[in-house]
């Protein structure tokens, strides 16, 4: 794989040299070939190796589920979880190309599902770093003496003086006798933030090879929660201690024996074993300059030429920042200077001295060695996106691996359909257009290389519907080639020679190709700028696809034709012919067609209204989430593979509406035996009953065993190294303790396992046996770090015989408790919030307005733009009605099986299908409009004859391009399985509607709205009479 990568890179280098050679000698053809080859190898290099560069979506490869909880203490009364989710989506996936769903769970929790190839730690940081930027004046001993004394007092950390607060300056981590290798230091007692210490030094104290004691600094490459990885070997034979001084701003406390007026106020607090946190006192001034006033952030260098982050304020921010610095200019002839602290999430990043008034801009320094390049990119991203409306707890409540959300059989069907659909169009083009078809296939292959390479470069995620979209690109990309080839055919029929056929074919088709591509580009740009992340991903793919299609279908194809012609390798262009010149009257029955369309659309809207919310997929409605465990000993389960278990759960859960299943694996577990079941049913109790009935004995029950009773050690007898590691509880000093072992402790997603067992023991066991004050007669504590997590300790003052009797009852109660069969059961929100839907609709309407404006400009009449958009609206509403009506059609025996109809629902892939339909419909309409403009020439009036001639002359092209695109989606529909069924259905119906509306809706509107001159109307009557 690596060798192939080198070959591609070398080929790219040679291609660039060849292009430069062509430019130097003035040989245009060599230059063009060099450019084409350079782009080809660049695209291949961007996607090589595919196993690393092409990232598959959750539906194909699985990923990681993270569940976070918002920090309750920081929530305001008007907190809106949807706003937080929207901000997180924009931060994690600003282009909308990674397909990372974020759902609301309950009132203050959210769930994120990351594709397998995503950097989980990077995403965690993006989720939990609020990104709050502040500019604060450091408190000093000259002006803040009274506040200093109170702040340094015993209660000063929790309650600093008014108008002051403690900001984090850094921390000191230290320990003794760590485990080590040549390049690692491990201390299992620590819980550091991942990569917090990357790039700084660790001081190691120990003995070298000669046995001499010494302390040496070694640079840290990265760190985990309890392990340090060094850049180089430390060279010590033994290590007795280590110390890490994390201080991004490099601010130091003054000499306590000789304090100076400008010294900062710093305090140190031990917050854990071997961890001391440093805080610095800052003044909350009335200007309150924060990140909300930033205009932009950018990469730059500080005065030591180290990497830094620059920032520029908006006008209001510049005014406030200028006032803040003007109020704190140097005093005592520059002997006393204020320091301006730049805080990010309350951590001091730098604190330069204020020498003069500063207004528009500044920089954030990264300490003595500056920021690492990756850190610069991260900070810019955080600052540009702005701070989050609320903060999440840094540690996720849940982190689990999840298998592909689509079944193995569904994936296999989808992939098979994709291959067939991608091959059928090239085969058709070669058979129909012969040599020209081969050229078109080469352009298509190059288009795919460039498009996939671009998406790989942008780290896009490829889901099954996304891959279907790429297959559809092939079907739609041939449109430009067909336009050119049909123009070549017309030139040949006029008697033009081969050179003229090539030249005129491309030149005359260019206007139509340009108009259709620019229209789609403009509407996609509007979707990109106005739309949500879900819409942006589609828009970006469309933009890139349109640009590469212009390059391959026009530039590359023309170069190939010219090259083969100049070499004398082609003498004649032979092509099959769909039909001779047609002379159909498409315009006369327009009013009947419009009436039928109106009736069908109204019926479709009624069907949409009747289906209501049930027409929307779980992406929009949310629903109920249940996590279950399979019983490994059940004969129906024990012999199944991972994929077999997933299929088993899907089959059993299929009795619920609109089900998706995710297989789960925690840590180093080897098999998937836990599953998330999601359904649109909003009633948790009904869902629970349905699952219990469907799965029965296949669900794993909670089992508990307990060991013999042991005396609880007294405070005097307890030793720090006691094997039980249990704390001494004086009120049970004369009682007994039991070790409880469980087969699983993941039986409640929201409460600690020990609390769940305690509640059941008190309420369902002791209270029913009439034991007074049951909650005061025992305590259950969970396992500590390093112990078996499935073990708990029960301490009680009950008599041993009574205690053991009650424990037997507890074990039976746990096994029979049906709620314990579910790890969690909760409602969750859709990935598309209501505000998001509104914004997506606004973006779509805005894209229609830009289509109207452009066609108005190009065709010198507003009616052309309105006609095109009305045809688009017709297609969208017709397809929407078909989706709605599928619910009733699917209930008709025979029809359901013959048409493969099911009660389709609107989900995110179907939204992409609707957006694709808009582009297809406009494209089709513009081809006819351009021919109308050509036939109309300078004639001031339109006639029915012009419209009919335009449609008839482009009919062959309309049929061919519509057929190739429709054939792709039809194959996906009949072969693609459930993963592509709804997406393909919308396009199968939509493409038929789009072809119909171009001919019978858009074009006739021109004659009805623009009208004909009396002389032209007379000609129309004569034209119709000759039919």
From TrEMBL:
<dbReference type="InterPro" id="IPR055344">
    <property type="entry name" value="SecD_SecF_C_bact"/>
</dbReference>
<feature type="transmembrane region" description="Helical">
    <location>
        <begin position="6"/>
        <end position="24"/>
    </location>
</feature>
<feature type="transmembrane region" description="Helical">
    <location>
        <begin position="982"/>
        <end position="1002"/>
    </location>
</feature>
<keyword id="KW-0811">Translocation</keyword>
<feature type="domain" description="SecDF P1 head subdomain">
    <location>
        <begin position="286"/>
        <end position="390"/>
    </location>
</feature>
<feature type="transmembrane region" description="Helical">
    <location>
        <begin position="438"/>
        <end position="458"/>
    </location>
</feature>
<comment type="similarity">
    <text>Belongs to the SecD/SecF family. SecF subfamily.</text>
</comment>
<feature type="domain" description="Protein export membrane protein SecD/SecF C-terminal">
    <location>
        <begin position="819"/>
        <end position="1009"/>
    </location>
</feature>
<dbReference type="InterPro" id="IPR022813">
    <property type="entry name" value="SecD/SecF_arch_bac"/>
</dbReference>
<keyword id="KW-1133">Transmembrane helix</keyword>
<feature type="transmembrane region" description="Helical">
    <location>
        <begin position="864"/>
        <end position="890"/>
    </location>
</feature>
<keyword id="KW-0813">Transport</keyword>
<comment type="subunit">
    <text>Forms a complex with SecD. Part of the essential Sec protein translocation apparatus which comprises SecA, SecYEG and auxiliary proteins SecDF. Other proteins may also be involved.</text>
</comment>
<dbReference type="InterPro" id="IPR022646">
    <property type="entry name" value="SecD/SecF_CS"/>
</dbReference>
<dbReference type="Pfam" id="PF21760">
    <property type="entry name" value="SecD_1st"/>
</dbReference>
<comment type="function">
    <text>Part of the Sec protein translocase complex. Interacts with the SecYEG preprotein conducting channel. SecDF uses the proton motive force (PMF) to complete protein translocation after the ATP-dependent function of SecA.</text>
</comment>
<dbReference type="Pfam" id="PF02355">
    <property type="entry name" value="SecD_SecF_C"/>
</dbReference>
<feature type="transmembrane region" description="Helical">
    <location>
        <begin position="506"/>
        <end position="531"/>
    </location>
</feature>
<dbReference type="InterPro" id="IPR022645">
    <property type="entry name" value="SecD/SecF_bac"/>
</dbReference>
<dbReference type="GO" id="GO:0043952">
    <property type="term" value="P:protein transport by the Sec complex"/>
</dbReference>
<feature type="domain" description="Protein export membrane protein SecD/SecF C-terminal">
    <location>
        <begin position="397"/>
        <end position="565"/>
    </location>
</feature>
<dbReference type="Pfam" id="PF22599">
    <property type="entry name" value="SecDF_P1_head"/>
</dbReference>
<dbReference type="InterPro" id="IPR005665">
    <property type="entry name" value="SecF_bac"/>
</dbReference>
<feature type="transmembrane region" description="Helical">
    <location>
        <begin position="537"/>
        <end position="561"/>
    </location>
</feature>
<dbReference type="Pfam" id="PF07549">
    <property type="entry name" value="Sec_GG"/>
</dbReference>
<keyword id="KW-0997">Cell inner membrane</keyword>
<protein>
    <recommendedName>
        <fullName>Multifunctional fusion protein</fullName>
    </recommendedName>
</protein>
<comment type="subunit">
    <text>Forms a complex with SecF. Part of the essential Sec protein translocation apparatus which comprises SecA, SecYEG and auxiliary proteins SecDF. Other proteins may also be involved.</text>
</comment>
<feature type="domain" description="Protein translocase subunit SecDF P1">
    <location>
        <begin position="81"/>
        <end position="138"/>
    </location>
</feature>
<feature type="transmembrane region" description="Helical">
    <location>
        <begin position="464"/>
        <end position="485"/>
    </location>
</feature>
<dbReference type="InterPro" id="IPR005791">
    <property type="entry name" value="SecD"/>
</dbReference>
<feature type="transmembrane region" description="Helical">
    <location>
        <begin position="910"/>
        <end position="929"/>
    </location>
</feature>
<keyword id="KW-0812">Transmembrane</keyword>
<keyword id="KW-1003">Cell membrane</keyword>
<keyword id="KW-0472">Membrane</keyword>
<feature type="transmembrane region" description="Helical">
    <location>
        <begin position="954"/>
        <end position="976"/>
    </location>
</feature>
<dbReference type="GO" id="GO:0005886">
    <property type="term" value="C:plasma membrane"/>
</dbReference>
<feature type="transmembrane region" description="Helical">
    <location>
        <begin position="414"/>
        <end position="433"/>
    </location>
</feature>
<keyword id="KW-0653">Protein transport</keyword>
<dbReference type="GO" id="GO:0015450">
    <property type="term" value="F:protein-transporting ATPase activity"/>
</dbReference>
<dbReference type="InterPro" id="IPR048631">
    <property type="entry name" value="SecD_1st"/>
</dbReference>
<feature type="transmembrane region" description="Helical">
    <location>
        <begin position="839"/>
        <end position="857"/>
    </location>
</feature>
């Amino acid at each position: 794989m690596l060798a192939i990568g080198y070959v591609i890179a070398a080929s790219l280098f040679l291609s660039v040299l060849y292009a430069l050679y062509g430019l130097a000698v003035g040989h245009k053809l060599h230059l063009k070939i060099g450019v084409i080859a350079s782009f080809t190898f660049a695209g291949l290099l961007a996607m090589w190796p595919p196993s690393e560069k092409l990232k598959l979506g959750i539906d194909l490869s699985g990923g990681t589920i993270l569940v976070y909880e918002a920090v309750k203490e920081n929530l305001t009364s008007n907190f809106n979880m949807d706003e937080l989710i929207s901000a997180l989506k924009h931060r994690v996936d600003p282009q909308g190309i990674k397909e990372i769903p974020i759902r609301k769970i309950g009132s203050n929790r959210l769930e994120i599902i990351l594709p397998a190839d995503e950097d989980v730690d990077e995403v965690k940081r993006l989720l939990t770093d609020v990104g709050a930027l502040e500019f604060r004046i450091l408190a000093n001993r000259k002006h803040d003496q009274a506040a200093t004394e109170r702040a340094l007092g015993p209660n000063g950390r929790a309650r600093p003086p008014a108008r002051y607060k403690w900001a984090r300056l850094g921390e000191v981590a230290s320990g003794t006798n760590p485990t080590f290798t040549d390049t690692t230091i491990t201390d299992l007692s620590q819980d550091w933030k991942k990569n917090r210490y990357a790039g700084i030094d660790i001081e190691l104290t120990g003995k070298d090879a000669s046995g001499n004691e010494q302390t040496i600094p070694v640079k840290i490459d990265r760190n985990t929660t309890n392990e340090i990885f060094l850049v180089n070997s430390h060279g010590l034979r033994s290590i007795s201690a280590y110390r890490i001084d994390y201080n991004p701003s490099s601010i130091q406390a003054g000499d306590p024996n000789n304090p100076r007026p400008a010294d900062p106020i710093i305090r140190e607090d031990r917050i854990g074993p071997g961890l001391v946190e440093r805080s610095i006192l800052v003044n909350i001034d009335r200007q309150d300059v924060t990140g909300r006033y930033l205009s932009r952030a950018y990469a730059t260098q500080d005065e030591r030429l180290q990497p830094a982050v620059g920032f520029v304020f908006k006008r209001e921010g510049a005014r406030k920042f200028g006032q803040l610095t003007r109020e704190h200019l140097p005093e005592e002839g520059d002997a006393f200077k204020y320091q301006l602290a730049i805080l990010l999430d309350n951590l001091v990043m730098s604190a330069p001295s204020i020498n003069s008034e500063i207004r528009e801009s500044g920089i954030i320094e990264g300490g003595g060695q500056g920021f690492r390049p990756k850190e610069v990119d991260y900070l810019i991203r955080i600052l540009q996106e702005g701070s989050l409306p609320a903060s999440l707890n840094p540690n996720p409540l849940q982190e689990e691996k999840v298998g592909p959300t689509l079944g193995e059989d569904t994936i296999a069907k989808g992939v098979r359909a994709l291959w067939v659909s991608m091959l059928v169009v090239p085969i058709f083009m070669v058979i129909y257009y012969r040599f020209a078809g081969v050229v078109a296939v080469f352009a298509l292959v190059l288009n795919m290389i460039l498009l996939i390479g671009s998406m790989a470069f942008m780290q896009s995620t490829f889901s099954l519907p996304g891959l279907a979209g790429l297959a559809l690109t092939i079907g739609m990309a041939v449109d430009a080639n067909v336009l050119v080839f049909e123009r070549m055919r017309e030139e040949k029929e006029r008697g033009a020679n081969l050179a003229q056929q090539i030249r005129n074919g491309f030149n005359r088709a260019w206007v139509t190709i340009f108009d259709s591509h620019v229209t789609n580009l403009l509407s996609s740009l509007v979707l990109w700028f106005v739309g949500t992340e879900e819409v942006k991903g589609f828009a970006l793919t469309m933009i890139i696809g349109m640009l590469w299609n212009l390059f391959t279908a026009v530039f590359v194809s023309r170069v190939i034709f010219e090259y083969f012609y100049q070499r004398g390798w082609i003498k004649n262009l032979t092509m099959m012919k769909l039909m001779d010149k047609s002379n159909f009257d498409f315009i006369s029955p327009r009013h009947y067609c419009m009436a039928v369309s109106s009736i069908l659309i109204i019926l479709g809207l009624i069907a949409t209204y009747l289906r209501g919310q049930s027409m929307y997929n779980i992406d929009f409605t949310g629903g109920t989430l249940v996590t279950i465990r399979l019983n490994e000993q059940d004969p129906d389960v024990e012999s199944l593979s991972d994929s077999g278990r997933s299929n088993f759960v899907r089959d059993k859960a299929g009795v619920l509406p609109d089900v998706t299943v995710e297989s789960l694996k925690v840590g180093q577990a080897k098999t998937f035996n836990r599953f998330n079941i999601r359904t649109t049913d909003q009633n948790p109790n009904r869902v629970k009953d349905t699952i219990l009935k469907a799965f029965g004995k296949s669900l794993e029950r909670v089992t508990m065993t307990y060991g013999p009773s042991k005396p609880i050690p007294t405070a005097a007898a307890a030793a720090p190294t006691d094997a039980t590691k249990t704390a001494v509880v004086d009120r049970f000093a004369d009682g007994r303790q039991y070790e409880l072992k469980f087969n699983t402790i993941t039986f409640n997603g929201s409460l600690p396992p020990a609390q769940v067992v305690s509640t059941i023991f008190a309420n369902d066991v002791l209270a029913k046996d009439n034991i007074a004050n049951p909650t005061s007669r025992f305590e259950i504590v969970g396992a500590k770090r390093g112990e078996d997590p499935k073990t708990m300790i029960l301490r009680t003052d009950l008599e041993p015989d009574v205690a053991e009797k009650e424990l037997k009852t507890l074990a039976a109660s746990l096994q029979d408790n049906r709620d314990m069969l579910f790890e969690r059961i909760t409602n969750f929100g859709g990935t598309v919030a209501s505000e998001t839907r509104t914004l997506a609709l606004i973006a779509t309407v805005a894209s229609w307005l830009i289509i109207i404006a452009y066609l108005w400009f190009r065709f010198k009449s507003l009616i052309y733009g309105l006609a095109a958009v009305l045809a688009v609206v017709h297609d969208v509403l017709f397809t929407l009605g078909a989706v709605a009506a599928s619910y009733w059609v699917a209930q008709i025996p025979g029809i359901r099986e013959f048409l493969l109809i099911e009660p389709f629902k609107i989900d995110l892939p179907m939204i992409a299908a609707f957006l694709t339909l808009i582009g297809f419909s406009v494209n089709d309409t513009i081809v006819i409009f351009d021919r109308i403009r050509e036939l109309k020439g300078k004639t001031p009036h339109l006639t029915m004859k012009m419209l009919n001639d335009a449609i008839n002359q482009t009919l062959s092209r309309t049929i061919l391009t519509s057929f190739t695109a429709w054939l792709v989606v039809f194959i996906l529909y009949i072969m693609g399985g459930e993963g592509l069924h709804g997406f393909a259905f919308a396009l199968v119906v939509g493409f038929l509607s789009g072809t119909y509306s171009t001919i019978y809706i858009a074009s006739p509107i021109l004659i009805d709205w623009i009208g004909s001159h009396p002389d032209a109307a007379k000609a129309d009557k004569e034209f119709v009479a000759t039919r």
